[in-house]
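Follow-up to my post from last week.
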Amino acid sequence: MPLLLLLGLVVAAVLWAIATYNGLVSLKNGADGAWRQIDVQLRRRHDLVPNLVETVRGAMDFEKSTLESVIAARARAVDARGPAESATAERELTSSLGRLFAVVEHYPDLKSNQNILQLQEELTNTENLVSFARQRYNDVAQRLNTRREAFPGNLIASRFGFGAREYFEASAVDAEPPRVSLGAPPAPRT
Amino acid sequence: MIDFASAAASNRRRSGLLIALLAFIALATGLALDASGPGLPLFTLGMLGGTVGGTLLADRSGDAMVLASLRARPVDEAIPEQAQFANLVEEMAVSAGLPTPRVMLVDDPAPNALATGRDPEHATIAATTGLLATLDRAETQGVVAHEMAHVGNRDTRIGVVLAVLLGAIALVADFAWRLGMDDDGNDRDRSFGPIFLLAAALAPVASRLVAFAISRQREYLADATAVELTRNPLALASALERISSHPRPTRRGVQGTAHLFFAAPRTTWGDRRRGWLADLWATHPPVADRIARLLAMAGAGDGSHDHA
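User reply:
Got it. Predicted complex:
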């Protein structure tokens, strides 16, 4: 009888271990997927920038330095290797884009230009996608870290090498506040 | 921190109970009708067939039926507002870690939105032209987040099945009622007794009370999940405020689909009034309560990022 009980406990323990392991795998894959999503969105932003520059270039000839800094920032972001370098370059790109659109506000022709409005929306969209992709990654990373640190998950996690995940800290990524105002949204029609 | 898994799991449990309850109501009604009506077990069989058939049909193509009934159409990305709406759906999909749903539009000046689909891989989010014209980017983002939350919490699947089931029960009960009453509104002869009429009258009532209670809980959960997606409760509260005070509320809608919308359409009695009885009968929680909960989240939170 006690042998049966012991057997039952062992089986239960094994089943629990399997379930916990699978849960960790699921979270790990979720975190990897979320990380890749960030990359996808950053690349998408790199692709949009040349289009934007060409659209404004004609009308903003004497704002050369602003345009130049956008082009340069984009080049650095594309060439960046490694998370630290990439984070800095992406931050620079965000800042230079913000400055560009602040300048656009002073050109009435450009402000109401349909192409500009469309690009503004696309860039707002892309900034948000990067931001939400990071937010999602942080959420999954947090769940993963909690699961691997808390008892009894920590027993499984250390044995099978589920490493801790770093977060995107707001302070590390954005020197400026996370608010990106790339122009006013379309006015609501009544 | 969004954990769709646990919300979805608890929804599955409650949905299972709900479907069982509705099936019970349907069958009990069928039996009552048959017991006091004509000899053949027509109504029991009818209810049985209707429930099973309806559930299967709804599960497979329910969302297509709902969207068709609203005459929903795909967005035109050449129109800036609609392109923005499609962008917002994509943003919320990324935030939720789910596939991007299909995006559609309903021509209606009344601002509203809805989500349908059996699972996140086959989901659709639609908004009215009125909503796109009324709300700003952040508010629309909040509404889209709410709909995305329904998709992630697996509310959309049960919602559509519910719509079809309620419709089927109402249909059979209505048929039974007409059988039992002649054209002048008097009882026909004794083959259809009072129990028959009572059963016919109560079936839709009982089924709706059950359905609406679950629907209200779902709305609160969707609001909370939406805030986790956007980290911006104030925008959603503002959207609710604007929609509920809009001079043209949604009046169109097939019976039984009210719970699929973001804001309660004025198609059922409970959604047109306040008061404890109307609240029981409402498909959505009162707007004031929803806004209050959102404002409470804003107060307790660590500050929102402006992602719009």
